[in-house]
Each structure stands twice: as C-alpha cells, then as structure tokens.
Amino acid sequence: MFKKLLIANRGEIACRVIKTAKRMGIPTVAVYSDADRNALHVKMADEAVHIGPPPASESYIVIDKIMQAIRDTGADAVHPGYGFLSENMKFAQALEAEGVAFVGPPANAIEQMGDKITSKKLAAEAGVSTVPGHMGLIEDAAEAIKISGEIGYPVMLKASAGGGGKGMRIAWSEDEVAEGFQASKNEAASSFGDDRMFIEKFVTQPRHIEIQVLADQHGNAIYLGERECSIQRRNQKVIEEAPSPFLDEATRKAMGEQAVALAQAVGYTSAGTVEFIVDGDRNFYFLEMNTRLQVEHPVTELITGVDLVEQMIRVAAGQPLEMAQDDVTLTGWAMESRLYAEDPYRNFLPSIGRLTRYRPPAEVAAGPLLETGKWQGDAKAGDTAVRNDTGVFEGGEISMFYDPMIAKLCTWGPDRPTAIEAMRVALDSFEMEGIGHNLPFLSAVMDHPKFASGDITTAFIAEEYPEGFDGVTLPEADLVRVAAAAAAMHRVAEIRRTRVSGRMDNHERRVGAEWVVSMQGQSFEAVIDADHDGATVTINGDALRVTSDWTPGDQLARLTVGDKPLVLKVGKRPGGFRLRTRGADLQVFVRTPRQAQLAELMPEKVAPDTSRLLLCPMPGLVVKIDVEAGDEVQEGQALCTVEAMKMENILRAERKGVVAKINAGAGDSLAVDAIIMEFE
Which of 212, 465, 508, 526 is the most buried (most CB within 10 A)? Predict the structure, then answer.
C-alpha cells in the first residue's frame, strides 16, 4: 500500500479523500492556495503545501506546482478528486513519468473518454447508443449556427473538456446559438484551459441517469447500480438519488452492461461514471464518461456499502477487486442535496462571504456506516441515516474563486419516501447564516408533489419554477401548526421577560393566554392553556398539543405539534420571530388582541424604487459592457456580463429604455447591489 497520498484538490472532496486515507492508515498531503490557507482540508491533512495565488489557473491546475509539492513531500500516490486536474491526461502522464501512482484511470483512457467528441465516436464503435450531433470541432459562431440548423433545434452547446455545467448552453434558435457559443467558449477556457466546442441534439423531456463502474488492473469490471441526476439547474446537478425511481431491472442491467463494455473497450481502471440520457420509453443514449470520482458518489456508497475512494486507492495500488457483479446488491434508497452558495431569491446568483453560522444536522448511522460505506448489520424498518460531506466550517469564507458548493447533505432510508422525509428534516435542521444559500429551494423540491412521485426530467426546475424561486407559501394546515408553535414559544419568551431582575415591586408583568399570530398575510387567534410539560394551543377551534425544550435564544427549535414533529429555524424580531421551515421564510408577529387591532392601522413600508437602475445581483467581475450612455435598449437586450465563481452571467434589460449613465467598466470588481448603470 502507498506510504503517502497527496490530494490534488480542495474543499469537500479533499476532506472526503482524507477521511478514507486516514482510515486506511495512509498519511495525507494537502495543497492550498492563498485563499485556502485556513481551509478545512488543510487542517485535516497530515501535511500541507502552498501552491500559489487564489485563481485555480495559478495554483490548483498548474501541473508543475503540484509535481513540486509531490517531490517536496515524498508522496508516492495522488488522488485528484473531481474537477481541476482530475481528467487531465498530461497530469496523469507527468505522474507516471515521476513514478508516482495516479489514483484514477490510465492516461490513454482519460484522453479517449475525457474528450467528449472522441468518447462519442468510441461509444458508437462499441455499439453504445449515442445522441445525434456534430462530433467535429467548431471554430466560430457562424459555423455553430450552420451546424445547429442541420441537426435541428433545440441543440446543446458543449465544451469538449467540460464538466459541472461549465461551458454548456441549450439553444432554441440561431440568436441563442450566436450569443451562447462565445460565452460557453469563454467559460470553458477559464475553467479547463480548453475552449473546444461541439454540438449535439438536445433530447426534450429527458432524464439524466448515470451508471457507476469500477474496474481493476486485472481485467475485472463491475457496475454498482445507477444514480438519478435529473434535478438540474443550468446543467448543474442539484439533487441526486440512488437508485432511480424510473428504471426497471431490465433497463438497469442493459445500461450497466453497456457501461462496463465501454470501460473495458478503452482499458479503463478505477472508478468511473458513464452518463446516459433516458427518454420516457426508457430508451437510453450515451452522453459522456467521467473518468473520475463523481460529486454524487455518496448515494451509491450508501446503497451498496462500497467505499469508492477506498476502492480507487486499492486499484491504483494494483490490488484486484474484492467483489464480482453478483456480489453487488442495492439496499434501500439514498438522497443527496447539494448546498450551494447561491441566492435562490436572486435567481440563484452566486453569493460569497463569511459563514457566520454553520451547524449541519448531526450525522447518524442507521444501517450503513457513514464514512466507510460498509454495512453494520441489517437495516430495520424506520431506520434512516444522515451524512454530510463538507469542506467548510463556521467562521470560514466562501471564496469567489471556486465552485459555490458548500456541502453535500445525504440521507438514507429503506425506501424512497423514508429517504425523502429524512432529507426534509435534515434540511430544516441545517443552520447556515452569513451568505445566500439554496437550503430553502432544496426544501421546496423535497415537498413538491411531482418530485415526491418520481415523475421528473431534467426540465423539472425550468418547468416548475419558470419565474425563479421566491419562497414557499405554506398551506393553511401547516401555517396553523407554525402559528401554534410560535404562540407557545412567544409565551415562553414573555415569561422569561417577566422575571428580569431589578423590576419595581408594583410593576408586575402578567402573561395572558390570548394571542394573535400573523404571518403570510393571515392572522390566527390562539388561546394557550399551559402546564409543566408543554401547552395546548387552540386555533380555529382545533386544540394542538405543543411540546419542546426550546428556550429563548436558541436558533433551532425542535417541537412536537399535534403529535407531529416540527423543526424551525428561529430568529428574533421585534414583536415576534423570523421562522424558516420547509422552504418558507416567515415573518411572524405574536401580539395581544389589542396590539393586533392597532397593527392593522399601521402603514406598510414601501421599498425604494430601483426600476431605473441596473444593480449588480452578486459579487463579481465585470467582463464587458455591451451598451453606451445614450443608447436606446430593448426588453431582453444584453447590457453587460458579470463573472462570478467561474460562471458568466449576462444581465439584460427588463424593459425598453435609454441608458443615462454607466458607472462600471470591464475589469471592475463589484459588490452586491452596486449600481452598474442608470436609465432615463
């Protein structure tokens, strides 16, 4: 086995690899940029080497700097994680020349499968069904438009070396091809150092389902079931699960066997993933092969009991697989929610800053062990597990230089409904403050009837949230439960306030039993009958028993309301609370009946008028300004491009108007809500 393992990556995946390496008794080396000097993966590793400035192009993807770190530390193996150099053939070759083991596939397999154009040709030769498209390289937008017309709209513009949604665009017209082609090339160049593009037919109403393969250096290869990855936004996966609720056993077997055949055709070793598009009739088409560990690998580990990182290390060390295809069993169901530093209330634009509060739900092993993936006995009905793979900590910073993913929250249950319910509770219990994040949106998806039914495609988010996400409106039954909880919590807080020291003897404050709880445009009259064990809150004639150990100041409340659990994130507000649950962000006021009567007479505060301003929606760098002062612009016209977290965002005019003043230029670094331009 290896004497020392260097992880050529950062963040969550570096921490994940370090955990398994430590369990295997292998010392680890972390590498870090200036921005990651105090990062979690640096603290977890046995050694750490500084490799340069924050931009990945000057640190994490500079092969010479990684090679020097290897020489300086004497590492004899390297795990690349995902992204960065994980699918870089030249990096694998450099390691081979240095006599250092690459914990991944051979360089020739990376070359053949890592390039999307070459991989499609090889897949077709191997008899794998492929999506119609243009496999040759495309030089400019004019050629892209011509090819797109021949294929037929809609088409997918893709970077040949792409991944993680970078350099990908769906185009439904010539105008969208012309506009998206250059933006995709720019993203590909900045993220991968390779701006080659190709085009393929976009299959409408598709599911994105991938097969996990594992192969050793002795000719053995197996598949470990599939992952459903259809919940995507901008071609970036948001929620994954295993197995898929759509596949039957025959389709699973056919896809798995094709994936293994393709891996063996190119001499593949290590863990890899073969991605397919699957239509409504379960016809599947090869999409690409990722020659690395996938972000969503934990859901496969949770249903198979196989630690994929451990298997990658053992394969790289020349050991044969310890299991055959018949040994692979799928037990239960696993969900993964990707927590991103992006603000769903601002159309999911990137958010950076310091994590002033970061308290994930407690990790729980029930059935599968969390870090090893191995099973500890039989899972019982009602068992659930919670796992959180992360690379951040409370007080740490989310940088503008890297991918916005904060953590991967995973749950496991004996069946899909149980796994989903476990995820709902885990999301409600996840405390995160200081930045914009997508926790509310993830909660909304978990409660969406279409998702719960398993009737999903890659168009789910676009179809179900066409105007973006502006929070969840809870049904009245849920509001009543929240109102009962708020009333009981307010009473507890009021009692504590009556006990303040130093009060005058003749100014005793009494806490009444009648309250009016207002939220989401509704008011509920609540009557509280309290005792030592809790309170019975009567609303609309229904008596709800409320019990909890919540005390004022706690930012998370776990209650039982009407014999059902309720988890609330709690923030104090004058006259009430800010309560968040199941994707809803509620401003809750708890008043006496007289206070509620007077509150109805208060005027509402009007938000400032920003209709004549173009505000920067996220911290970022201005790439270009497309208009000048005095220009007349039309609705939907591109005004400027702002880059943040390796993604280019085109800001467009909301309505027709004339540009009065431009306050920023290309190269400027802007904060949220900075004024880019003004209109007459």
Answer: 212
